[in-house]
Structure formats: C-alpha cells, structure tokens
Amino acid sequence: MQNRRTERGTFFPPFWKMDSHYVLVEFSKEFDLPAAEEIRIYAEGKYNVKINGKMLHGTPDKVKLQKGKQKINVKVYNQGNVPALYVAGNTVTTDSDWNVTYEDKEWIDETGKASDQSGTTYVKAGKWNFDEPTVRPSAFKLPVKPKQALSQEKQGKGLLVDFGKNTFGFLTLHKLVGTGRLNIYYGESREEALSTKTSETIDLLEVHKNQQPQDSTLDLSKAFRFVYLEPEGTVKFDQVSMQYEYLPVADRGFFRSSDNELNKIWDVAKYTMELTTREFFIDGIKRDRWIWSGDAYQSYAMNYYLGFDSESVKRTILALRGKEPTISHINTIMDYTFYWFLSIADYYRYTGDKEFIAGIYPRMKSLMQFCLDRRNSDGLMKGLAGDWVFIDWAEGLSKQGEVSFEQLLLCRSLETMAMCADLVGEPTDNRHYQQEAKQLKDKLFAYYWNDQKKAFAHSRIDGKQTDNVTRYSNMFAIFFNYLNEQQQAGVKANVLLNDQVQQITTPYMRYYELEALCELGEKDYVMKEMKDYWGGMLKLGATTFWEEFNPAKKGAEHYAMYGRDFGKSLCHSWGASPIYLLGKYYLGVQPTAAGYAQYEIRPYLASLEWMEGKVPTPLGEIELYVSKNKIKIKSPIGTGKLKLQSKTVPRVKQGQVKHISGNDYELVLEKGIAYEVDYKN
Amino acid sequence: MQNRRTERGTFFPPFWKMDSHYVLVEFSKEFDLPAAEEIRIYAEGKYNVKINGKMLHGTPDKVKLQKGKQKINVKVYNQGNVPALYVAGNTVTTDSDWNVTYEDKEWIDETGKASDQSGTTYVKAGKWNFDEPTVRPSAFKLPVKPKQALSQEKQGKGLLVDFGKNTFGFLTLHKLVGTGRLNIYYGESREEALSTKTSETIDLLEVHKNQQPQDSTLDLSKAFRFVYLEPEGTVKFDQVSMQYEYLPVADRGFFRSSDNELNKIWDVAKYTMELTTREFFIDGIKRDRWIWSGDAYQSYAMNYYLGFDSESVKRTILALRGKEPTISHINTIMDYTFYWFLSIADYYRYTGDKEFIAGIYPRMKSLMQFCLDRRNSDGLMKGLAGDWVFIDWAEGLSKQGEVSFEQLLLCRSLETMAMCADLVGEPTDNRHYQQEAKQLKDKLFAYYWNDQKKAFAHSRIDGKQTDNVTRYSNMFAIFFNYLNEQQQAGVKANVLLNDQVQQITTPYMRYYELEALCELGEKDYVMKEMKDYWGGMLKLGATTFWEEFNPAKKGAEHYAMYGRDFGKSLCHSWGASPIYLLGKYYLGVQPTAAGYAQYEIRPYLASLEWMEGKVPTPLGEIELYVSKNKIKIKSPIGTGKLKLQSKTVPRVKQGQVKHISGNDYELVLEKGIAYEVDYKN
C-alpha cells in the first residue's frame, strides 16, 4: 500500500525499511467436538494438515473429524502474500482464538518421538475477512463508487475537468478511441493540473489501436480535484468520470452549531479524514500516501471523535512498528517513535482494549530499549546518524544538540510504558519505567527550565542550555500536565501568547498549540483562531485541509512546498484537527477512565449560540445539545459527569445537580437516561 | 527450496523460522565516465532511477549518462521474489561493487534539501547470474539431463522401474494416455517402492482425458532408485525415464588406489556428494531436502577435497544464518549453531577469503551474543525450552543438564570469533572472545575432566559431574588439540578404543571418530574401519551412502528409522566422509595457512600399494602419486611441506630433502614444480 505513491509518473516508495510477512506459519487450535463433523479447508498458500499430530495425505480440502478432542494444525507457506487460512465446519471454524507461530519447532528424535519442550511462542492469529472461500485476503481492495465531474472545459490542446472538490480514485475515460498517447495531469488545484511541466501527479497513457470506443479505467488511484487531459495522435474520448475509492467507516461523530463557518470547517475536516482514512491512516492523498507515525497519531485522535474505527487504529499502529530487529526510529524520526508510544496510551484511554496492549507490549518494550540504548552519557537523546529530528516544518528550526522536545516526549513515552506494564501485569517493568520517567523528568527541569524566561529552552548544546525558546516543549508540557500553576502561567504569557516566539504555520503543530490553549482555559481565543486559520483556508477555496497554511502568502504561492511549485499536499490528515478540538473542548466530551467507563462533559459555547453533536464511544454515541440555557445529554455507556457553569441554579428532570463553588455545577450521568438541564450561561 | 520436501504426497516444510528477502532495496554506485554513454536497465520488480540524486520520469529502461561523475541509484520493490537489478552499459554495469541497502533514509526537509546525516548502512550487493535481460534470477532452476531406466518389470497391477542407482530428478512418463489416476511410489530401495502403504515419497497423478499419447514430466523432483507405477482407469504409458537434476560442479578432487573396494567407496561417496550438493548443501535427497548446519558442516569439509565449490559453501552458510532477530539456534539445534561458527573457520582456512568473513562478521557477533546470553549462572549452556540438544542419533543418549560436548563446541566457536575479530580488525572483540574462550576452557577441564576415567564426562546435572562417558567431547577434544599427550593417550585407550563406551552408528559421528583416530596416528586402524563400515554398506548394495548404518541389522531393517519402515535416507551427505578422510589423512593434504598459502602433505598408504589423487585449492589442484617407493607431487599454489617417512634417505630430482629425525624427512614444495621422490616405506 505504501508503494502506490508516484511523482511525475515515477514509482516512489518510502525510504525506511519495509518489512514483509512471515512466509511460513502454522495455525492451530484444539476443539472438543460434541459430534463428528466434516470441515472444509481453504488456504492462501501451499499447506499441510495435521489432525492430533498426524499429518494427512496431500493437500486435503475436506477432513472428517471424530467426536471429542481434536487438535488441528495447518501449516501455510506463501511467499508473495500473507499466508491465510479459512476453515469451515459446524463447530470448527477459524477465528481470532486460533494460535499462530512462524516457528513451530516440532522436531522428532530418531525413534519418531516428538520433542516435549518445543519452547515455541504462539500468538493469537489475526482475524480478518477470510470467511468465504472466494474472499481471498490477498485480493482485498477498497470499494469504489462512480462519481461524475462537475464541469469540463477546453483548454489549449486539451480538456480541463473539475470534480468540484479534492477527491481520490481511479479516472475513467469514456468511449476512448484511437492510437497515441493521452497525457493526464492531475491537480489538487486548477493551477497544478494546468502546469503540465510541474504538476506532481501524471499519467502518460499509451492508447494502442482502440478501434471500438470503450470505457477505460486507470489502474492506480490518484488524488485530484482537477484533471487536465491532452491527447496526442488520434486519441479521443467522450467524457471523464471517476471511481471514488474509500474505506467504509460508520458515520458516528457529528457536530453542528449556530455558526455556519464553523460547521463548514467541521464538514471539510470530516471529508479530509474520510480521504486519509484508508487501508491505514495516511498523511495525505497526493503525497506521501505513506503511513507516518506523527501524522497518524493525530488521525487516531480525530477518529475518536468521528468514526471511532479501532480496526484502522490498530492496524496502523502495527504497521508502523513493523518487525524486529529494531534498527531505526519509526519512519526514521525520533519524535515519531515517541508519538507511537503515546498513541497506544490514547488508544487504551478511548477504547479500554487491554487485549491489544497485551499483544503489542513486547514490541513496545523492545522499541523503548532501542531508545534508552541511544541516550548519551547525560541520559538524553540527541539525533545520532540516521535519526531524523523532525519536530515541525518551521524555517530555521534547530535540530542540533539535545532538543528539549524530544526528552519531553521520551518522558511521556516512559510513563506510557509504566502504565502498560501495569496493565499487562509486569510490576518489575512498571517500577523500572516509572523510575526512568521520574529521573528524566527531573533532568528536563534541571537542564531546560529557565526561570528568567519562565519557559523550557529549546535545546542544550555542549552541556549548555541554548537561548532559544520555541513553542513545542512548552505547549506539550501543558497538556502532559508537567507544570505547576505558576509555570503554566509563565508559559502562557511568555510563550503561547507571545508573538515574538516563532509562529507555527502547520496545522500539525497548530493542533497541539490550540489544545494547550484550551487546557489553559483560552477557549474563546482558540475558537477565534480556529475560525481564522481553518476559515482562512476555506476562504481560499479549500475543499480539504492543507499540509501547511501561511495566511501571508498569495495565490498559487500557497501550493508550493519543498522547493516545488505544487509540492504541498492540499488534503493532509493533520489539517482536520477541528474535529478533535470541537469534540474534546467545545462539546467537551472525554473519557476519564479507560474506554469511557467514566467520562466528563464540559460543554463550552464560546461565541456560539448553540451546538449539538455526537461523540462515539465503544458502545454507541454520546449525544448532546447545548445552548445558552439548555443542555440535553444521553449516553450509552459508563458514568459521566456533566460540568457546567451557570448564573442560576440549574434545573433538571432527571438526576441531581450538585453545586461545586461559585457558578460551577456538576451532574452525574448514568447510561441510557436522557438528561435535560435548564441553566443560564 | 526448503519447501520441496514431501512425505506421502504432503507438503512438508521445515519447522524453523523461514526468513524472506528484503522487499524494497536500493542499489547504487558512483562512476567517473570517460565519455557519455547509454545504459540499459532491467530489474526484477518495480523500480525507479535516480541519476545524481534526481529522480527520472517513469520507469526508464534506457538512460543517457553524461561524461564525468555520475551517481546511479535504482530502487527495486519485489514482494514475491528477491529484488534484482541488471544494468548494461559501456562502463556502467552491475557487479559486486555496487552498494545495496534496505533503508536508504534519504529524507528531505521542507525546503527540499536532502538529509546530510542519513546513517544508512550499505553493504556490497550480491552478484549472481543476472547479466542478460532474459536470465531472471527468480526463474533459476538447476539444469537437467535425461536418464534412461535400467530395467522395468511387471509387478502385480503395476510396473517396477529400476534406474540402477539412487538418483534425483523428475520422472518422465512416455506416451501417457487415458483417464484415471496413476499411483507412483518412489523407493530408494526396491522394498520401499513396492510398499505402497509405507513408501515415503509418492505421487498420485490425475490423468484427465489424455487422448493423444504424450510425454509427461512431473513437476517436483524426487529421490529414488526404484519407481513402482500402478495405473487406475484407462491410464497407460509406454516407458519411464527421468530428467536428472543436478548442480554443475567442476570435477576437481580425485582419488584412486590399489584397493578397488576403497576406490568404490570413494566413487560412491563422490556420487553421494553430487546428489546432495544442490542449490545448497542439503542433508539427504529423499529426506529432509533441508539445509541442516551440522550436516552442511561436513559437506563443506568434503567439498574442500572434491569440488572446492566456494559459492555453494557461502550461500549455505548465509542461508543457515538467516536474518535478525536471532531468536533460536540454527535449525533450532544448539550444536548446529556452533558448527556454523566452525564452518566459517574452516572456510577461511581452506579458501583464505577474508571478504566473506568481513561480510558475515556482524551476524557472527550477534549469534554469539545470543549464545552467551543463554548461559546459566555457572557460565554453561544447557538446553532451554526450544533448544534441541542433538549431538547424534544414538539410543538413550542423555541431553539433560549441561552436556560437555556443547561447552566444548562453544569454546571452539569463541576461538573462531577471536580469530575472525582479528581478521576484520576488531582488537577489542578479539580480546573479549579470547578471554571468554579461555575461561570456558578452564571450566571445561574443571567441571568435566575425570582423572580416574581419563576422559571428559558426558554431562553435569545439578552442579555434579555425571558418571556417563561418551565419545563425543573426547574425540572432538583431540582434533581441537585441547589435550596434552597424557590426556590424549587416556582418551584413546579409555574411550576411542574402548568397546564398553557406547558405539557410534551414524556416519555423521563416525566422521569425527575416525578423524580423531587419524589425528592419534591410528590410520591403519581407520583404513580398516573405513573399509568395514562403508564397505559394509556397499556389500548391501548401497549406491549412495546412508544416514545411519548398523551392521547388526538384517535386510529391510536397514531402511527403517524414526519408527517408519522406510524413514531412513539412503543418500545422506554425511555418509560421504571417506572423501574427506582420504584427502586429508591418506593423500594427507591440508592447508597450514589460510587458502593454501602454506600447506603440508603427509601421505599415508596404510594397507594400500599405491594411491594417486588430486586435491583442489583456490588456484588449481595439488596432484600426487604415492607408492611404497615413489612420491610424485605438483602444486599450483603456495609453499608446501612434504612430510614423509622413509627407511632410506629419499632421493629427489628437484628440491632438497631435509632429515628431521629417525625415519622422518621433509621436502619443501614450491608451486609449479614437479617433484619426484624415491624413498622406501
């Protein structure tokens, strides 16, 4: 999937290690059958079958099993695709309770006796869509649906087609006929499609003696709003449509308010997420079409307020980690390794899925060990050869020395390790990681906190704090809750609300900046910023949100990046963060115990007259409506607390409002009950 | 290749981890071109091309390069087969001097500037047969040549075909016609082919409406001397032949003597090696058709006295090691891990190939670390869960506790590490391994040497030496040169020549036993044993040498093993050791400095009147003829020493004979000179 990026028609795979599957695996399970039954066996790959340790002749596709205890082992070999198995019987059927191993170690001695101490590591088999003989996992493709173009117009020697908004899929040429080349230039903008020399994505389609006009759909999906087609020779076609390629995700999260611009922002953010949530959460649809840990970390968070599609989260986390040995940071980026740890903490918080933690824990440990082994003699991590210290796309941002931001993320990652060690019942690990986290946190303050500047310094070079202060460590320290009140106030005044500190221009870091401000109670300010920044893109005609946005730029300047005229991705998942901010800080819903066993709702209208929405949980959606004098809430899960401010004592039909202090009130929410609160904001 | 074993028609792959290739790799090289040239590019896989860091459009198969410095990078992706590249130009061509990596880490920053500290590890690309566009490495198959059957006779409802000797290849059915099933039973013995219920290898061929008689060759090569074919339905065929499948290896080593039985032994051993030297050195042709480190270790040694096919040695060593992470012993067997180290020491000794050592050294280090990490608190290795302690196929042989044999092999492996560390210029590693080896050797004597028994004890359980004495550690200690003269004499009398100590019945361990006896000067005894043991198999009609031979058994009992009537492999590489023994201890040729820079020749006729032979070296064959009064020698390489015993002063036409003491004389041999020595034995 990461091999589908092209640039100017050139195959453009990632630059990091690409792992492949285990080519030879053994699936097994024991059953206690109430009666004899016949099973059918379908595998993707060459296979053999053992029943109760005895290998059957040939490659059986039907096997009769006797009543009682039956152990089934099927060994599958497949070099080109992932070995997969589907067994269908009355009782016996493949599910996620089968064991799987890539090393069964079942040796025998010279008498034929099998080893009694094989020491094989078994894990639970991955279960997916292989439950019909014909549904071969290797043949999986995302579904498509046809979409028509909005308009087509002649331009020079060719035709410019506009699909009305940025989209993704396979182009269809209707009634294609003739001989020659059809030059196809894709554009996320009109300018890009028409810039035949510099558009990022092209197809040079050779048409060979098409005598009968026929509809032809291209092989590789592409990102575009505009397509410019220039035929050569006798090539002709009638019109152009597309096959929209998408991952079906349930429509769960929702937001609507009295502010139409904000609604539009939410809708465009949702569509941006729809386009970038695919086989995995990818960064952007035009570029890179790769799985980046830092980008995915934000996609997961948005997903918890939109589709709550845990399968996509899990498979992206797994794909990012890859296989042992661990020889590089995830995507080669140090910060991206840390986001990977953080993403697991978040996943557990939103879903409560301990089983996934148990499965991934060994690979968390080895990745953390990789990190700890790369610390220098001061116990800090700096970029070694082959480590990309990314942080953000920002002009002149120093990556030299030991950057405070990286230590901060490592510290949080260690805390995540401690939490997960506890979850999987490893108290020794738990103590170890707690201790490492504490030591590092102490260093973080000792080495980087600057009492004059009331902020963390950006970095440390040759054992000395540098003069530079940037937003990154400071804003993350806010929502990591690492600062006391005084320090928080310092960071807010001297960094976050200080225009002298280098501004952030990527939606990527805007996400964290605005989150930090929300945590500091600056939600009115953030609402305004959100409308300015994302509203700013909408005013420029954005139909999906961008990789980077600098309001100071003009016209087609906006599309340039990486030294290329149209290098910028105009549909980038990290652009969709209003979904997260609106869900978490305005609708105000977030879990306070894993998987929404407990949660709080702290609605905040800011400049809005009213808002309503749905926030997905593992057991359905929390629905709420909030206006200046009424709140309606219903939750399918857990125990919640509605926290509200009211100038008068709120009145409720269900439940009991508790006065906290001043204008602060609290209402305990039980699942399944529709609450209605009359109050005065 | 290891997936071609079948048992009763069932796919039977190995039980250890099967590694796959890196699916995405980048090849690169810099050239300084004297003139502009056009290159042609052929790849197995999807690829892109960069010239001087600039990616070219599409998938170019021709590229024009300018005069001067040109850097070429080609990135190839191939999931199902190994990514491979062939570039053909005047100056520019793919060879083993290209760099390759699976992780190029060429990230760019937001301005498009490439990283200046990628930290990528490059290794030299493997070079093989891809030097014509059409010779695709993935399509590689061993060559075949047709062979006729010796006889065919009717048997019951079918036909029994005899190919005269054990062989390997694809069966061809001539003028096959009709509809129904053709049951094919292969046998390394006549009994096996006719035992349709228990023969190990079968093909149940479905013949569908063959109306025109046609020749049909089966898909999968098999091992057999006899084939029994039982047609069902209307299936008929005319006769049966085969396509003999083989690795072309130069015919280099040679042995002939006055003893025809010994000559036959050498010929059959040679044929056994021919059959088991294939894509890799495998154990046996019927079973397992897998690559086993302990078996291969012996094949390498025989190969140095036969084909001297270093490519086969290298690719087998590489295949056995596999990829990181190291999670199990090689083939899951502890001793087989150690033989892997020893095989590298031997390879260097015979070939002097430092380049291979440099390439494999990192994987030697990590495998050794895996071993050292598995030692217990006494610093000894015992079988942990998942470790197979094999030693030998021998009834009742204990694998419990800390077996002395495993410590002995580990000690020798550590010495090999020290030697290789020195070769690759790692003095710190060298000291480390030397120290570890010394400590372990001290323990070996402290824990296992028994002064009463004048031998190493077999094992140690719960911190105590066991009573058991076996041949394994004791005989290896001889040719590892770990014993002083007194200890050697003790081992010889109390173990090697003591019938009370459990006898060895596998040619596998016979190899080492006889080698130890040769080292102790018992070459007359060994000659007799060799003729008895291997001659014993010949008397039973062996056409290739067996996995195991117990002279006490009768008739078809010989074919049984692993609790199965025909479980035994009758063509097993470890059966071919007379090649090694005759070359090293009777022709008496062995290198004394790496790659035959120095060597010695110590001919020993034993019961022979005369013998002659060729021993291959990196630069051709050392040829010699030895009778009781004449020795003729010519060597293409290095400086040798002919060591001989003579009752009279030897006379030479070339060179100068030096008297050592008593009957011992020495003649220095320079390359290219034909020496002739008249002496009296």
Automatic annotation (TrEMBL), chains A, B:
Domain Alpha-rhamnosidase-like N-terminal: 25-229
SUPFAM superfamilies assigned to the protein according to its UniProt record, in alphabetical order: Six-hairpin glycosidases
Domain Alpha-L-rhamnosidase six-hairpin glycosidase positions: 252-584
Entry-linked Pfam families: Bac_rhamnosid-like_N, Bac_rhamnosid6H
Domain of life: Bacteria
GO BP, one annotated term: carbohydrate metabolic process
Protein name in UniProt: Alpha-rhamnosidase
